Each structure stands twice: as structure tokens, then as C-alpha cells.
Amino acid sequence: MVEPVYFEDIAVGDSFAFGPLTVTRDEVIAFAAEFDPQPFHLSDEAAAATHFGSLSASGWHTTALFMKMFVAEMQREPARQAASLGAMGVDELRWLRPVRPGDTLRGISEVIDLKASRSRPEMGIVKNRVTIFNQKDEAVMTMVPIAMWRTRPAQG
Amino acid sequence: MVEPVYFEDIAVGDSFAFGPLTVTRDEVIAFAAEFDPQPFHLSDEAAAATHFGSLSASGWHTTALFMKMFVAEMQREPARQAASLGAMGVDELRWLRPVRPGDTLRGISEVIDLKASRSRPEMGIVKNRVTIFNQKDEAVMTMVPIAMWRTRPAQG
User: Which of B63, B91, B95 sits opposite A63 (nearest CB)?
Assistant: First the structure.
């Protein structure tokens, strides 16, 4: 049994890298067809008539791909997974550049704020700044997830 | 040809309703299996061991379902669709309650802030407060998308 990484073990500045993951044209179109069927997410022809110029992924597809990379990495680190209580939300989500079919994404998450919970001593709040990059090391998306994290149990 | 709803036609307090949409167990599991394979998003058995209690949708599935409802409603209103330039991001995304298989979601978007763009006179920035409700009229998610909107072309 791995000792969990508790809230008290986390420091501002800690970072966590995840990815890479390459997104295909079929995946971009399939996600958009189901969840965001705006024409510029469905074909190059429609995108050429907009400021996108060519097919780009739905911004919500990019957030889902962030989660896919992040969870895969967490599941390689059982010590982190054991103490994570999920996220209550996200601040400052920004789509900075289009994500294109064939792009290879990766990300980094850095702790920027830690706060104990007054009402719930069994958990703390961890804010991270997440940046997702493409294969040219351009930032395509940034956000600040607000995660809940288990505190170290009191010694009995 | 419908006259577009330009930035100048939008007022703080304007609201826009969308949905409903019912999410199935198969959809919850399929989304999670692809993008957020944490055990509590994959089976009731695993969820029973967590604070979720039973199967709940990935928060990113809920954002994707928001977009699905929102785009469907936009596509019924060509006047709005013509002047929308997409979103640059989202502030204050909060997952307030679990979304469960069989839940029927709906949403409302209300304009809370309007700002002309100094650098790009052809567009304005529209902030909306979005609330997603379940069939019990409980808010399950809130957020503030930041949309770009075409301004009325100058008369030549």
C-alpha cells in the first residue's frame, strides 16, 4: 500500500506533467458531431469561410483531452490518486490557439495556491495553473482547476 | 436573409434558454471511458466507495452536454448564429451537484456584461452567466462564458 500524497505534502510550485497525445481528424469530427456541431468544427470547407481557416477542434474537446491525459498520468501514480477528491470547478479557462487534426498535445499543472477548508477539516483546496501545449510548444489552452485534496488523518 | 443580432443589439439581462436533454447511463460510461476513466465515472460499484455514492457523469461530460444543447438552440436562431464569433474562454466554472444517468438537463444563459473591443472594433465581448439545471430544478453547473460577437458594420 502506497502512502498517499496528502494535502500537507503539497507545496506551491509543485508541478506535474502529462501527455503527449495526438488528436486525429476523425476524433475532432466525431466529438464535434456529437457535442459541438458548428460547421467550422466539422469540415475544412466550412472552416475556410471563418477566422479558423481550416478544421479545428471544439474547445470542449480540448478540455476533454486535457482530462484524458491528466487521468492517465494520475493512474500511473497511485499515491496521488488515493488522496484526490476531484475538482469543484475551474477558473480562467482560455482557448488561446486552435487545436488542429494531427496536433500532439501535452500539459503541465503547477500548484499556485493552497487553502485549508474551515468547514471541512478532512480536505484542503489546491489551485493549479494548467497549460496545454501543441507540438510547436505553443500554449493552446490555460486554466486554473480547483481541486479538493484529502488532509492527513489525525493520529489517534 | 435574416438580419444578424449584432453586439449593439444585445443588452445586459437578455436571456437565452436551451435544452432539455436526457443523459443515459451508456453515454455517461462511454464519455468517461474515453476521456475521464476514474472508477466512480465508470460503475455504480466503484462510485459506492466514494462521496458520489452512485455513478455520476464526468464534469467535462456536463460541459459538453451544455454545448450540445446550446448549439442546437443557436442553430434554430440563424440571426444569432450569423454574428457569433465563438468563445475565448470561460470563468468561474463550478460543478455543484453530480449529474446522474437518466437526469434531464436544461439551461439558461443571461448576459451580465458587455464590452467593446478597443483593439478590434469589428467585435465586442459578451459575458453570460450560464446555469444548468436538472429535472428537479437543482443547479448542477454554473459558468461565465466569454463570447466574441460581431459589431454592426459601419454604413458606407
Answer: B63
